[in-house]
Amino acid sequence: MAVVVALVVGASVWAFTSGSDGVEAAPAAGDPACARLLQELPGSLVGLARTPQGAAGVAVWGEEQVVLRCGAAVIGPTTKPCVPVGPDDASTVDWVQDAVGDRAVRFLTYGRDPAVEVTVRFGGRLQASSASAPLVDLAAAVSAIPQTRACV
User: Fold this and answer.
1) What's the structural domain count of the chain?
2) What is the tens place of the pLDDT at every residue in 13-29?
3) In the chain, what's the furthest Cα-to-Cα distance?
């Protein structure tokens, strides 16, 4: 059993830090709010063009430098860093920095159902110091998913 757990954890870490051929849909990607969200997402993000994807609820910019998955697991109260990001008060979204490594960071929306997960891989124009920059451009579309809780 320990070997199975180690393999699953190892695969999750690998998927988080490296690109892949195609991105899997999140568990609740079939939610109608995810379909509406994908229609509202920008064609370019921090200078990266949107790459067509076949999976439900998935959007990718560049060569998987920024990956959005709508329908991720909704998180409850957490002690992880939570910050509001957006270009203005009307479209600010609370994001939890869910995971961070040397090569990538993953953010999850807080207080929205379905949840949205965004992974930013470092390299080229995207560095750790500017990892939240794509979240600003995503805020207007993501803010259409009703917020039920806020970061404190």
Assistant:
1) 1
2) 334 433 445 799 999 99
3) 49
Inside any domain, residue 27: yes
Which two three-digit tokens encode residue 116?
């949205």
Q: Is the pLDDT score of 129 beyond 90? A: no
Q: What is the pTM of this model?
A: 0.84
Compute the distance between CA of residue 68 and CA of residue 79 in angstroms, rounded to an integer: 23
Q: How many whole angstroms separate alpha carbon 152 and alpha carbon 149? A: 9
- Residue 37 token pair: 């969200």
Q: Is 21 inside any structural domain? A: yes
Q: Taking residues 36-65, what's their average pLDDT?
A: 95
Q: First vs last Cα of the chain: how many Å apart?
A: 39
- For residue 26, give its domain range: 2-142
Is 95 a domain residue? yes
pLDDT tens digits along 140-149: 999 999 999 9
Residue 150 inside a domain? The answer is: no
Query: Which one-letter DSSP state was computed for residue 46?
Result: T
Backbone φ, ψ for residue 146 (5° rounding): -55, 140
